[in-house]
Structures are given as C-alpha cells and as structure tokens.
Design brief:
about 400 residues; alpha+beta; seven-stranded antiparallel β-sheet; four-stranded mixed β-sheet; 14 helices; 13 strands
Length: about 400
Amino acid sequence: MQPALALATQWLTHASLRGWWIHALYGRYSIDSSTGRRTLAPDESREADLDTAARDLEDAFARLAGVVRFYWAPVESGDAVTSVNKWWALGRMAGSNDDDDEGGGGDGEAWIAAAERAPVAPVIGVPTLFLYHLLSPRGACLAGGACSELRLQFHIAKILVHEVAHAFFLMLHGDVPEPYFSPGDYMPEAGYSWQEYVFGGDVSCFPLKRSCVGALLAAECVEMHAFPGIGVPVDMGWVERWFLAATWESVRSSDIEELRPLFAGMLGRKYAGLIYADRYIGENRQWARVLYRGGEPVAVRGLVLPGAPLPLREGGMKVRKWLKRIPPGDTVAQWWKRVSDADVGRAVADGFAAENFVRGRSRLYRGLCYDGEGEMGAVKVIRRVHVGGITGGAEG
C-alpha cells in the first residue's frame, strides 16, 4: 500500500495541487436565499497569498491528522465511506448485521443516538476488498501482473484522497450539507469536486472484484453514474507517470490540465484508441459492456440488470456481429448520443424498467443538488462513494 500512500500524499500536499485544498480551507460557506444553492465562495485575497496559505494548510492537515481515523470497512464492494464520527460508523455497521444475538444488529439505535450527541471526528472506512488484493497472493499481482498492481495502487490513492476531502470539509464546517466547491462542479460533493480539479472527471477501475483489477476508465462527471455509460481506458503510461519522482519534480500548477486523461466527449472522428460503452443486444435482450478499438467492437462483457437474463460471458463473437462500428464521420459524442438513446428505447420496449436507466446525476446525488434538478433532504453526513466511473449494471 506504500505506493498508494505516497501518491495520495502528493495529491494532498504538492504545491501544484494545493489550490483546491486552499479554497476548501478559506472558502466561505454560503446559501443563496432565493435558490437554496450552497456554495463555497472564494476568499480571493487570502487564497492569493500562497506562502501564508501553505503554512495554514499545513496546520489544518495537522489538525485533521489528530482527529480523523481509518478502519477496514467490512464490505465486499469497492465502496468507501466517511462518517461524521465513529458512532455513525458503528450505527451503519450494526444496521447491516442481522445477528442480534451477538449484540450487533440490536445496537444500531444506541449508536445513532450517541452519534447525534458526539462531536465531529471523521472516520473513513476503507473497503476490505482493497485489503484482500493487498494481502492475498491470489490478488492483483497474479490476476494481471504489474499493471494490475499499479492500477490498484492508483485507485486506492484516489479513493483515500476523495474521502479525506469529505473529512477535511467536516472538520472545517461541521455536519452540514456540502456545497458546490467551485462554480463548474457537477454536483455539491467534496470528493468529486477534488477529482474534477485534478482529473477533470472520474478515473476508476472496472471491473474491481476479487478475481481481477480491471482497466482504469476515465469518465466525465455526467457519465460516471450513468447507465448506459461510456468510458475511455487510460494508457498505463499515464498511470505510471503519477508514480514517477520526475513528474513531481517538474509539475507546476499550470500543468494540471496536461496531466488529465482523455474523455469520450473529447474524442474526434476516426478515433483509433479504446472505448468501453454499455450497449443493448436486442437479439439476446441483454446489456453488455463492449470494448471498441479503432471504432470496431472487439470484446464483450456481460452486465446484470434486475429481472434480466443471465449475463453474457467473455468473448461474444456472435454478439459482436450484431454491433456496428462507429461511423468514421461521427465524433464519439455524436455516435454515443444516438446509439445510447436508441438502446434505451429498445430495452424499455422489450420490458426493461425505465428506472434502470440513469442519465446525468445518479439518484443518490440528485438529492444533494440545489439547481432545480433535486431537493436537499434531511441528509446525515454519512458519505458513500460509488467506486467505478461508469456504473449502472453489475459486472457479470
């Protein structure tokens, strides 16, 4: 786990990437009285004094280190979670434990009552799926060699910093709904705001399970919780670059955008690289994640949807013959808008429930938006992170 911790430390402290953290430290939490939209307004004079800001940020991180705690969350998925205090974390774990005789499930209400009285002291639950890959000789190393190991370390580092962003906000502002940190943020969510700042979107492993650590897929925020979704596998050279000392010795704040990956919306006509896209195979009445290379469908992985047939297996030679190549005259965005709309229409006509399909913000995050696309409910700050850039169906 040492490479992941070293990378996370650079993302937290390197001078070229301090801007988000300085804004989180100095920004003024405000609520628009007419719209209810919560924002973190910049304190321009303080944020511009970089020397003082660096010292204040170091002090703030030292305070955070004194209160935040980490634990291995007993979950099989790759989800991480940040809770306001340990009592919220215990309440969540007790709520998922049906063995009342062992004192687990019956404690939930007591833990929640304690959480309401206790001060903010963030705890971050790291999924045991990571621990499995880190410890087991059957984990990432054997499943895919050095490349899988590097992807795993990158993914862990990203998840840790995403969660630290939540914990940092909790320490500074308490148990209040998170704001839009920056005007261009896709949603009011600290972790994804940081990811937008560094990567311009989301970069997550798919699939991520005990048997393998899949490709790192880059997805724009509008696609990261969408189904059907689209993502671009990042080159391993791009992943490796983040772990090289030479990168951090030379990178400046002005270089951030150059470090970002390609997203599907950026790809032009006749794109020669790789793309993953969720496609509906009407002949089989099944959904599949299809790998395209140079516009041609070359591999298929089945997806599971509620009430759907069993997923397709690897390969999919018969399925690929029903899929057409990406027309060379289309950009990837043009092609994707057309085929994804058509696929959803066919799937609904074949009996798939319309609620299976998500465009834009996931249902989980629509409740956190203040711009007419959702209403803020009485949300306790138990932050759940959905790992995976383009989710929707479970991988089969």
